[in-house]
Amino acid sequence: MLGICRGRRKFLAASLTVLFVPAITWIYLFAGSFEDGKPVSLSPLESQPHSPRYTASSQRDRESLEVRMREVEEENRVLRKQLSLAQSRSPSHHRGNHSKTYSMEEGTGDSESLRAGIVAGNSSECGQQPAVEKCETIHVAIVCAGYNASRDVVTLVKSVLFHRRNPLHFHLIADAIAKQILATLFQTWMVPAVRIDFYDADELKSEVSWIPNKHYSGIYGLMKLVLTKTLPSNLERVIVLDTDITFATDIAELWAVFHKFKGQQVLGLVENQSDWYLGNLWKNHRPWPALGRGYNTGVILLLLDKLRKMKWEQMWRLTAERELMSMLSTSLADQDIFNAVIKQNPFLVYQLPCFWNVQLSDHTRSEQCYRDVSDLKVIHWNSPKKLRVKNKHVEFFRNLYLTFLEYDGNLLRRELFGCPSEADVNSENLQKQLSELDEDDLCYEFRRERFTVHRTHLYFLHYEYEPASDNTDVTLVAQLSMDRLQMLEAICKHWEGPISLALYLSDAEAQQFLRYAQGSEVLMSRHNVGYHIVYKEGQFYPVNLLRNVAMKHISTPYMFLSDIDFLPMYGLYEYLRKSVIQLDLANSKKALIVPAFETLRYRLSFPKSKAELLSMLDMGTLFTFRYHVWTKGHAPTNFAKWRTATTPYRVEWEADFEPYVVVRKDCPEYDRRFVGFGWNKVAHIMELDAQEYEFTVLPNAYMIHMPHAPSFDITKFRSNKQYRICLKTLKEEFQQDMSRHYGFAALKYLTAENNS
């Protein structure tokens, strides 16, 4: 206590020095500037050299006064600097014996002290607290499980990244689904000065599974209670956020509030902005015990090191066990237990101003907060209804949320200048590859696209499928952009098996797709369709990257490599499963060809059998695919033989062959150098042939291409000479790579190309 008083006396003395030294100096100068009661100007412009008063002696006095004034000002500046340094170095935890008073005041006023984050019940300290260091890492913990929560996390992270000026370290407590989605997302997002660590939420279930919980968040809604055990033992403090949070300011401002904790304060929380814990929402409403209105745990500041020393684990467990004897279950998950602990130990909490957690629940009283506080910091959609919550100002908050929901995440790949980033091998390799390209090359943009890392969000919608136990299951693989979205429902009606789709969309288009899918009974009834969003970047459509993404994330042993504008025949899924067994695809390198046809009619009576299809061919309603513009693409299928075939037959590879095939999931990927229109499938079939795949045509299978407007890429191919030149160059380079990789056997591809 004595040390604190001495420190304050020193602080006061230094402050008085800073204030009074300049004042005394100016009084002295001001008094010295009068002679015979009249003011004397110190300005050379106003001096009167011919006046008898202005002797050489008085001139020297005036100059010496000016010199002295500058010296005093310099001393004053140095003193201020020393005082500032001493203030920043002084420990913010001079918290010996202090009063443990507690107030339930919310901190929603307009006073400057509240805007500075000082709320009632938290007494002022000596001087101003130090700001967050420029390159200090801010730690954020989030519990995330499942497909929907993973989407919510992305919006939360966008809002944080948009405002941040510090390195960030996200600690994600995630189940297997969320980890797969978010690990891929952050790996492909490549945001500088952002580190991600995952902790297995499923391993933590045993820690909290004994607590009955009625909240819609389920068992994962209790896992914030065990963060002291879960997070690294050397991590001292962390900001804990719910997934339904939106930031409207720099998270460093919230991190700085840690400096205001005193004594045994270890939890930073905002008061609950509803009457839930008052128990008056309905008759016989009986909430868990809480201090006044209680606290909301959507935003928590945790002093982990002190919590561990206080034996937090034992504290919350004993409290939960005691209350569950009468309450039987929690209604608001971890929030009920946090509040029960605080009720018994109010000194643990530092009450944050309400603008750090503006809660938009159904029974919210948050209007009392944002009516008075203009600079809202954090919006919390803590209602099961989320954006559909009833609130007269919900449009304002919804627009803020939608800003980040549809914001281009690629723009958040900003460097933090002056802050060294951890070495990222993937980023370094990418920079090395790009640096080796010649920017003066007319095909530079084509070559660059091969190395572009596209942000990827796997399983954008709920996915649930267990492959058939007989190991014959087949997944339809395709890719699409926004202009082919209308094909999804038709494909789902034609193919009942699992589907893996890669969608090339902007952030805003991804939300349009989400609304479209959620409004479709056909799509919502199917849980075996994996939608993988690859976000737009660059000027080309990365068709083969999209195919590779869709191929990589299938759970079946076989896949049908199709395109989104083809409708498979009814029953093709079951037919392919039987063919897999019949042709022993598991033990042989085969590519099963599904013959492709097309119609020029937008409204087609789809043939229900091969006989019906042959009749439509004869009538001119259907045609073999691209027979009139690109015959070579499917000619080797031998449609004349297919008409009468009853058993599978083998065909040989020919130049420019690009059939749609069924293969094992371990087949080679598509070559990424081919983007937009041209040679993307041709190169893949050539690779299969080089690896000695046997091409077998299925006699009773077919698919039909539906008409649509020409794509942007085919339009560029037809109108842009340089586009065609670059495609030819890429083809030649691919063939050279094939020769180097496969040796003498690959010479036939060069010969075939020259003869075609």
From TrEMBL:
GO terms for biological process: protein O-linked glycosylation via mannose. One of its GO terms (cellular component) is Golgi membrane. Keywords: Glycoprotein, Glycosyltransferase, Golgi apparatus, Membrane, Multifunctional enzyme, Signal-anchor, Transferase, Transmembrane, Transmembrane helix. InterPro entries: Glyco_trans_8, Nucleotide-diphossugar_trans, Xyl/GlcA_transferase. Its main location: Golgi. The chain crosses the membrane at residues 12-31. Residues 59-69 have a biased composition (Basic and acidic residues). It comes from the Eukaryota. Pathway: Protein modification; protein glycosylation. It is found in: Golgi apparatus membrane. Residues 42-69, 81-109 are annotated as: Disordered. It holds the Pfam family Glyco_transf_49. Residues 44-58 have a biased composition (Polar residues). It is a single-pass type II membrane protein. One of its GO terms (molecular function) is xylosyltransferase activity. It catalyses: 3-O-[beta-D-GlcA-(1->3)-beta-D-Xyl-(1->4)-Rib-ol-P-Rib-ol-P-3-beta-D-GalNAc-(1->3)-beta-D-GlcNAc-(1->4)-(O-6-P-alpha-D-Man)]-Thr-[protein] + UDP-alpha-D-xylose = 3-O-[alpha-D-Xyl-(1->3)-beta-D-GlcA-(1->4)-beta-D-Xyl-(1->4)-Rib-ol-P-Rib-ol-P-3-beta-D-GalNAc-(1->3)-beta-D-GlcNAc-(1->4)-(O-6-P-alpha-D-Man)]-Thr-[protein] + UDP + H(+); 3-O-{beta-D-GlcA-(1->[3)-alpha-D-Xyl-(1->3)-beta-D-GlcA-(1->](n)-4)-beta-D-Xyl-(1->4)-Rib-ol-P-Rib-ol-P-3-beta-D-GalNAc-(1->3)-beta-D-GlcNAc-(1->4)-O-6-P-alpha-D-Man}-L-Thr-[protein] + UDP-alpha-D-xylose = 3-O-{(1->[3)-alpha-D-Xyl-(1->3)-beta-D-GlcA-(1->](n+1)-4)-beta-D-Xyl-(1->4)-Rib-ol-P-Rib-ol-P-3-beta-D-GalNAc-(1->3)-beta-D-GlcNAc-(1->4)-O-6-P-alpha-D-Man}-L-Thr-[protein] + UDP + H(+); 3-O-{(1->[3)-alpha-D-Xyl-(1->3)-beta-D-GlcA-(1->](n)-4)-beta-D-Xyl-(1->4)-Rib-ol-P-Rib-ol-P-3-beta-D-GalNAc-(1->3)-beta-D-GlcNAc-(1->4)-O-6-P-alpha-D-Man}-L-Thr-[protein] + UDP-alpha-D-glucuronate = 3-O-{beta-D-GlcA-(1->[3)-alpha-D-Xyl-(1->3)-beta-D-GlcA-(1->](n)-4)-beta-D-Xyl-(1->4)-Rib-ol-P-Rib-ol-P-3-beta-D-GalNAc-(1->3)-beta-D-GlcNAc-(1->4)-O-6-P-alpha-D-Man}-L-Thr-[protein] + UDP + H(+). In the C-terminal section; belongs to the glycosyltransferase 49 family. In the N-terminal section; belongs to the glycosyltransferase 8 family. This is LARG1 glucuronyltransferase.
